[in-house]
Amino acid sequence: MRAPETVFFLALLGTVPVAAPLPWQTVAHRAIAWLKTSGWPVLVYASSRLAVYAVAALDALVTHRSLAGELTLFDGQWYLRLADHGYPDQALHAKSTLGFLPLYPLAIRGLASVFAGSPLAAALLISFAGGLVAAVLVQRLATLWWGERTARRAVVAFCLFPGAVVFSMAYSEGLTLPLVIGCLLALASRRWLTAGMLAGLAGGVEPAAVILFPVCLAVAWRHI
Fold it and tell me: pTM score > 0.90 for this model?
């Protein structure tokens, strides 16, 4: 038997150590695996965002408002004001930033300071990235509950739902929903500490997220 054939035969038997994959090969394999599991939500989400931005630009032309104004309507203005100036030092008898929780404005301020950008750009980036993460997590959670085929449909419904427009605006849902869905996934895999931390962070973004506290308690009690 020739030498190359001998080495190959011995490698099959496990007597010759096989060289470990190179770092770039490991990264490539991980990237391919990630695309297989997350490529669909990324594609659907990116397509839905392009459609939303196109509609926002068209609406700005019709209403003669700036695109920035379209993307910061209603609560978005309050979040940006809170990120810029913080809370007032006394109670006011009028609308103010006191009605908003601090975690999303803190994230805006932190990101804007790190990259020396505008608070609006930071707010929109957080919303966009958070929506993308949420879409990926929706597929994973739906796959766990109902299977891969239904999970793909769930991603489409999630990205095209009218309320998903907030992922293209300066709204806190882009930070809340990844934390909420991540908490549910952590509960499903019984990672109690991770679930509790995500629930606590979500509760610092929006008041509605405190519903996760009894959910965590109920799931942990059932397991115990």
Answer: no
Question: What is the spatial distance between Cα 79 and Cα 176, in angstroms, rounded to a whole number?
Answer: 14
Under 8 Å between Cβ of 122 and 97: no
Nearest-CA neighbor of 187 among 198, 196, 195, 199?
A: 195
C-alpha closest to that of 128 among 42, 208, 61 = 42
Cα distances (angstroms) measured from residue 75 to each of 25, 69, 127, 131, 153: 46, 12, 13, 17, 30
| Percent of the chain at pLDDT exceeding 70 | 83
Residues sharing a CB contact under 8 Å with residue 143, sequence separation 6 or more, in sequence order: 151
Radius of gyration of the chain (CA): 23
C-alpha to C-alpha distances, 60 to 53, 54, 221, nearest whole angstrom? 10, 10, 51
pLDDT band, very low/low/confident/very high, at 7 (cuts 50, 70, 90): very low
